Amino acid sequence: MPTARESLLDAALSALARLPWSGVRMVDVASAAGVSRQTLYNEFGSKDGLARALVRREADVYLRGVDRALAECPPASPTSSDAGGTPLGPADRLVHVAEWTVGSARSSALVRALLTGCWSERLPAPSVRTTAAVSAVPAQRRADAGVPGPAELIAAVRDRALAALEKEMPGADPVELGRYCETAVRLGLSCVVAPPGRSEGHAGYIRSVLARLPVRAVG
Questions:
Q1: Which residues contact 20 (CB under 8 A, 6 or more apart)?
Q2: Which residues, 6 or more positions from 166, have their beta carbon under 8 angstroms from its beta carbon?
Q3: Is the dihedral of CA 45, 51, 52, 53 positive or negative?
Q4: Cβ proximity of 43 and 5 under 8 Å
Q5: Which residues lie closer than 8 Å to 190 by C-beta, 6 or more apart?
Q6: Is the Cβ–Cβ distance between 178 and 211 less than 8 Å?
Q7: How many angstroms separate the Cα of 143 from the Cα of each of 12, 40, 130?
Q8: Residue 158 in contact with residue 97, Cβ under 8 Å?
Q9: Is residue 92 pLDDT above 90, yes or no?
Q10: Do residues 110 and 58 lie in contact, with contact meaning Cβ atoms separated by under 8 Å?
Q11: Is the pLDDT of residue 208 over 80?
């Protein structure tokens, strides 16, 4: 059973799908979540606090999806292959992450805004992306850390990918491997902003670019 906090965030997200953020009322969010308005203010402190927590949760959901994408794509092995019989390798993990990124950005306006930095008038004001002063409301502190900008979010994805690939590429130059991971993340982001042609698709496009970027071994 969801907590009051999760129910309130779900209600706020549902309201945002129908209304611009300026039209979302705290009293309506509380009513939809089945709690009192005082509970809402106790939990988030203000509408800005609710906005920060909502956007922060979307960022966390996206990053958990990145972790799943990295874990679900099997590492390269003599017997592992895709449907076409090609051995799986590091690029497959990164393409899997890119596919999750593109899908998330398409399904969530908040994730798209987090990744691109483009916040429409329908979404919480860009000011919620800055670090705010700590509120006197204890529960509110969880939202006061602010939410990540595009550069911070991309770095978080890169670091997760780097940690996963280092385990199966122990001899790779870590600097080059980090650049390889970041390039893949940014290629996925480019597919969000300007999708490639249908004949190739974003997965094929990213795979073809990564194939031209071999990672050298240390020494």
A1: 121, 122, 123
A2: 172, 174, 177
A3: positive
A4: yes
A5: none
A6: no
A7: 15, 13, 11
A8: no
A9: no
A10: yes
A11: yes
Q: How far is CA 151 from CA 30, 46, 144, in A?
A: 33, 27, 19
Tell me the whole-structure pTM to 2 decimals: 0.82
Measured distance CA(54)–CA(216) in Å, rounded: 41
> In the structure encoding, which two tokens stand for residue 153, read together?
């979010």
pLDDT in tens, 123-162: 986 664 444 444 444 445 455 567 788 999 999 999 999 9
pLDDT band at 122 (very low <50, low <70, confident <90, very high): very high
Euclidean distance between CA atoms 32 and 34, whole angstroms: 5
Phi, psi (rounded to 5 degrees) for 8: -65, -40
What does the block give as tokens for 29? 């969010």
Which residues lie closer than 8 Å to 70 by C-beta, 6 or more apart?
93, 96, 97, 160, 161, 164
More confident residue, 214 or 8: 8
Residues facing 81 on adjacent strands: 87
DSSP letter, residue 172: B
Residue type, 91: A
DSSP character at residue 213: -
Which DSSP state fits 74? Answer: P
Q: Quick one: pLDDT at residue 63?
A: 95
Contact predicate 179/161, CB 8 Å = no
Residue 148 vs residue 218, higher pLDDT: 148
